[in-house]
Amino acid sequence: MATFAYVGRTRSGAVKKGELSAKTRDEAVDQLRKQSVVVTSLEEKKSGAGGFKMSFGSGLTDKDLVVFTRQFGTMINAGLPLVQCLEILSTQSENKVLRETIGEVKTQVEAGSTFSDALRRHPKVFDDLYVNLVHAGEVGGLLDTILTRLAKYIEKAMKLKGQIKSAMIYPAAIMGVAVVVIAVLMLFVIPIFAKMFLELSGGKMGLPGPTQIVIDTSNFFIAYWYVILGGIVGTIIGIKKYYATVKGRMVIDKLLLKLPVVGDLIRKASVAKFTRTLGTLLSSGVPLLDGLSICAKTAGNKVIEETLFNARVSISGGKTIADPLAASGVFPKMVTHMIAVGESTGALDGMLGKIADFYEDEVDQAVASLTSLLEPGMMVFLGIVIGFIVIAMYLPIFKMASAIG
């Protein structure tokens, strides 16, 4: 989606300037024509950061989207016209990206587009889930109810995402500190000790084995630091490029699900996200097949994404939703059994909500368990490494002291 700056004239002859989003120049001209604007100048705006519209520090957050959705739902419920709601929200939103996007949506609605179609033109801000729920609300005349439900869904998704991040931040911070401390010791501290031992012994005294290992490691770091740094950067880039391929993403995501503790956390979080998303879609009137397609696209794990697409194919062939999910082996048996009960009783959306509540609590417990396991493990690792380095550096001093004695 590109942004175009335009200058044109209205039917009354007045000059009108502004910006709009469109896929092509022809589409931009067509939008202006629907607004009875004769284009005299139309130029595509180039973003200054490699084509990214959202700049650092002004990007849209989930919290901004929740506030917008809740306020919009409240205004619609109060009986305000759709365009007036958009006008108010476009002027009072604190986020620049959201403010500009709402303004463009308002322009497109005034030009004759439906609200959901206008949102669909801004996929970086409003994803498939958001657009489909709004469309269901428009068709069913329950837009205010859908928006309130959507805001609750985003809040729960934010909470789930925050739990996963909190589980990863602590070990990442500890590992970062460990790498910095060890690098400083190897590059700056150990060489000073090595020079001191050489001068005190006159180059004749042999160093203890642990000390020699540490000094040799330090010399290797000093001589080949650029190779080590390049290897680390190259490995990260290589993994990212491999993960960008379909096969690579499948292999890595499958491996992540098999990891101890972490794999269990990812599985529980994926189940909670899938059931919450599908339950919200079904309760809002979105068809099951469309809901599964949206859930697959937003799964975040290629293994689960493929499982949901396969389930969609099986359902279109006449099978129940529980059967293909159970056959995949990805989802726990309790989940598939509860989904089967929900299907048989005609209350699948309610059952999916209960599963989501249960697994969100399970994620809470899994995060606490992961933190309790990683914290002592990290401390032991740091203690062993730094303790070994300190003892290795003091061994020659003890040796020289005993020789003098």
Could you give a quick summary of the protein structure above?
It contains 15 helices and three strands. It is mostly helical and 405 residues long. It is extended.
Structural commentary:
Helices cover 75% and strands 6% of the residues. It is built from 15 helices and 3 strands. The chain has helices at 25-34, 62-77, 82-92, 96-110, 115-120, 128-140, 143-201, 209-244, 246-258, 262-283, 288-297, 302-316, 322-328, 333-345, 348-404; strands at residues 2-9, 15-22, 38-44. The longest helix is centred in the middle third of the chain and has 59 residues, at 143-201. The chain is extended and about 100 Å long. The relative contact order is 0.08. Residues 47-58 have low confidence and may be disordered.
List its traits.
three-stranded antiparallel β-sheet; mainly alpha; 405 residues
Radius of gyration: 30 Å
The share of residues in extended strands comes to 5-15%
Write down how many β-strands occur, each being a DSSP E stretch of 2 or more residues.
3
How is the largest sheet built, in terms of strand order?
2-1-3
Largest sheet: 3 strands, antiparallel
Low-confidence stretches: 47-58
> What's the order of the H and E elements?
EEHEHHHHHHHHHHHHHH
Overall, the morphology is extended
Q: Please give the alpha-carbon distance between the first and last residues.
A: 80 Å
Mean pLDDT reading: 82
Structural class: mainly alpha
Helix fraction, binned, reads over 70%
Number of helices: 15
